[in-house]
Amino acid sequence: xxxxxxxxxxxxxxxxxxxxxxxxxxxxxxxxxEDSMPKxxxxxxxxxxxxxxxxxxxxxxxxxxxxxxxxxNKLIMESINKNYVDMDEYPxxxxxxxxxxxxxxxxxxxxxxxxxxxxxxxxxxxxxxIMLAGLAFKKKWQNKRKAEGKPYDKPNLVTGSNVQVCxxxxxxxxxxELREVEVREGYYVMDPAxxxxxxxxxxxxxxAILGSTYNGEFEDVKLLNDLLLEKNKQTGWDTPIxxxxxxxxxxxxxxxxxxxxDFRLPLVKSINVSGHKYGxxxxxxxxxxxxxKDDLPEDLVFHINYLGADQPTFTLNFSKGSSQIIAxxxxxxxxxxxxxxxxxxxxxxxxxxxxxxxEKSGRFHIVSKDEGVPVVAFSxxxxxxxxxxxxxxxxxxxxxxxxxxxxxxxxxxxNVLRVVIRAEFSRTLAExxxxxxxxxxxxxxxxxxxxxxKNIAEENKGLVDNIGVKNTHSxxxxxxxxxxxxxxxxVAA
Length: 493
Prior knowledge:
Blueprint: H1 9-13, H2 39-50, H3 70-78, H4 91-107, E1 119-123, H5 125-147, E2 156-160, H6 165-173, E3 177-181, H7 192-197, E4 203-209, H8 221-235, E5 241-244, H9 252-255, E6 268-274, E7 286-290, E8 302-306, E9 309-313, H10 323-361, E10 364-366, E11 375-380, H11 388-395, E12 404-406, E13 415-420, H12 427-447, H13 450-467, H14 472-490
Parallel strand pairs: 2-3, 2-4, 4-5, 5-6
Antiparallel strand pairs: 1-7, 6-7, 8-9, 10-11, 11-13, 12-13
Pfam families: Pyridoxal_deC (PF00282)
Organism: Flemingia macrophylla
Cofactor: pyridoxal 5'-phosphate
């Protein structure tokens, strides 16, 4: 039994958790306890243990929003007990969802009339959104192949090797061959020309990324569209494009309004975006938008009637909370285009400040691009003394979570550190991070003087070469790099 002692009079009298037996008993780990405990004790013990987690604002590995205004927090708590799927009971929540779809669709230049409802759905992040978009492409391709009397059992999907892991999940779960365009050193995104070369009559779509997980870079959707249009014209196919704008969908419209990546391009049929990234909402909300009703096969849509009106739904989940949907609507009307533009400009400026300081240090190569998601990805110029993993490890001592990881296969010999600049990351924090990076470099240089390392390497070179023993440290780092690459595809949050 977890709590063998019955509550004593002193336990009931002393309201302080620290003066009761609950301060000295361990919390259950495997079995539900037989006895109850006071609500104050349950809260305090869980609260205290959670203090061992990292500080969300200093978690620079994540794209996910960690701070919202108190008024929005109140709305979240007021609606946390609403199940979104109960549309009959919560019609206003459903209407707020539809308003979000309409606003985001028009932000992406969808083909909708002035008072016409756009086609889209709120999802639990971009992973579900991508699954839905992929299913729509697969179903539409299958329907066309069946109508033409052609085989429809071998669909494929073309992406870059830098895609987020949810694309691999979609391919495996729904039996679609994944054709990846390998990245290379110095070019860490999908090459549109090579992508089009992989397209054949069984390709359900080509997926382009607006904001790579690895370095924040935008892929050239306009060039991909133009090359694919030409191939479709030559072959008679109609291979479409999906844009994975999980990170960049709320960035590009405000920082790069002239950039053509969305429904302005004729082959872009669907777009996903994460509301919980630069949409400025807490984790748990994504969106998928289709160009027109024709791009979402009707046999995938379920229809629910609430208050005499038809509500089409297309989701993988059923029950889910309403809070994040309501929070997204709050952010859209609270900030408007003016506010989002200002926030994204601030993120970009803070990213540039960090980048410039890193460049001035003379120790790093900058791997990220100026045009893209506000991310600074950088690698060491000289890794003989220490590597990116050591810097990441030591920055944790200062409270910072800055991930180190290898680039995708064929470029995985390049390790990078990545800092995601979110709305809540201020100029003061950016300057403090630079200061702490310089401190870490100084500490590492003190621990590993270059001259000493060089002498040790020279003394042992012959021995290692003669007996054919591979450096254990290097082997260990190689294993870590491979495993980190797998984990990095899952991050992203």
